[in-house]
């Protein structure tokens, strides 16, 4: 018997999320408040007894002059992805509901891990002359069942979303991320897992007098100034300050400690800043920013270590440094960021990526063509 999909209240959605150890920060009700250009709706999956067994945040983007929508579930929905009747019981009623809401296309990001590479494996891959992408290298582990999920989706008419932009930083959410497992580890163990350069830099920052503090909403402009400098240096289009102010207000209104801001000070100047998000046992380093000045005092390492220590104190099972490039080309400008994250001693993680289902093939094709030409 297929499940029943219908809108649920924010409280119902939050109660469901609270019962799970890990749910993406993009699958909680407040994330819809961060995206004013989208219409947000919390969906619930109900079984025959009326129990809520799945949930998802869907963002509906209107098409100008048409009463039709692109439906997007970033890093979701939160359903039983390993269920043998995944397509018929879980996804079919979702598609039927969204089609009834006027959606012409559905995009989702199954939170299904495919492969993992240890820090040592990634480091060796970067040094290997014949490895051009992470996928060229034998992973440390495969996740059982991930390929079955992909096969079921393809047979049902779902298609992997086209990738564009920077590897790992395309429109949509990153397929490759870097995570540091915390579950069952002491903070000393996490510290021992850092590579020698990281430990040396943390000590150097401490000796130089770098102080890392938590900030408030009033410190967002200081973060934003560094963020603009970072955007110019790393060649990406920055979001407006209002976006981060909206994030702060929306996320922390839902939970008082959902979003944190950290700032690394040295001799009266803020040299680095970052935001940290928490949902259950999953903590994300979401946005980072730094100046090119006084890099020798290593504010970035000091700030990350403070965030990792605080995440550990919060009971995090994983500290997520988000997107990484999957290219291993020495000339690529994002390889330095990959090296920085590898120094934490964590692991590179590949997810199943985002998938599209065209409910109206003509409109879906027109949208794909438009996006390809942007």
TrEMBL record:
PROSITE patterns: FEMABX. SUPFAM superfamilies: Acyl-CoA N-acyltransferases (Nat). It comes from the Bacteria. InterPro entries: Acyl_CoA_acyltransferase (IPR016181), FEMABX (IPR003447), PG_Glycine_Bridge_Synth (IPR050644). Keywords: Acyltransferase, Cell shape, Cell wall biogenesis/degradation, Peptidoglycan synthesis, Transferase. It holds the Pfam family FemAB. The keyword Cell wall biogenesis/degradation applies. Belongs to the FemABX family. This is Lipid II:glycine glycyltransferase (Peptidoglycan interpeptide bridge formation enzyme). It comes from Streptomyces achromogenes.
């Amino acid at each position: 018997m297929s499940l029943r999909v219908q809108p649920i209240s924010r409280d119902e959605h939050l109660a469901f999320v609270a019962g799970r150890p890990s749910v993406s920060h993009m699958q909680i009700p407040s994330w819809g408040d961060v995206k004013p250009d989208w219409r947000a709706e919390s969906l619930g999956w109900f079984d025959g007894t009326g129990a809520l067994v799945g949930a998802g945040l869907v963002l509906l983007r209107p098409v100008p002059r048409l009463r039709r929508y692109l439906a997007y579930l970033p890093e979701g929905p939160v359903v039983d992805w390993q269920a043998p009747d995944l397509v018929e019981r879980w996804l079919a009623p979702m598609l039927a509901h969204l089609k009834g809401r006027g959606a012409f296309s559905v995009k989702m990001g199954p939170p299904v891990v495919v492969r993992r590479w240890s820090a040592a494996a990634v480091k060796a891959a970067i040094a290997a002359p014949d490895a051009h992408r992470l996928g060229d290298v034998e992973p440390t582990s495969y996740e059982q069942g991930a390929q079955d999920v992909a096969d079921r989706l393809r047979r049902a008419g779902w298609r992997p979303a086209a990738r564009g932009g920077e590897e790992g930083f395309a429109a949509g959410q990153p397929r490759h991320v870097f995570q540091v497992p915390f579950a069952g580890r002491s903070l000393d163990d996490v510290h021992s897992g850092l590579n020698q350069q990281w430990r040396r830099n943390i000590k150097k920052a401490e000796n130089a007098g770098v102080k890392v503090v938590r900030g408030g909403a009033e410190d967002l402009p200081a973060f934003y100034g560094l963020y603009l400098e970072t955007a110019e240096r790393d060649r990406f289009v920055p979001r407006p300050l209002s976006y981060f102010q909206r994030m702060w207000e929306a996320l922390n209104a839902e939970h008082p400690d959902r979003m944190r801001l950290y700032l690394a000070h040295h001799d009266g100047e803020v040299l680095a800043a970052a935001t940290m998000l928490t949902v259950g046992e999953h903590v994300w380093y979401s946005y980072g920013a730094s100046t090119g000045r006084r890099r020798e005092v290593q504010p970035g390492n000091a700030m990350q270590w403070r965030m990792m220590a605080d995440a550990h104190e919060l009971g995090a099972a994983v500290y997520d440094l988000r997107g990484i490039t999957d290219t291993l080309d020495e000339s690529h400008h994002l390889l330095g960021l990959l090296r920085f994250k590898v120094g934490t001693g964590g692991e590179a993680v590949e997810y199943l990526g985002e998938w599209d289902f065209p409910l109206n093939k003509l409109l879906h094709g027109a949208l794909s063509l438009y996006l390809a030409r942007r």
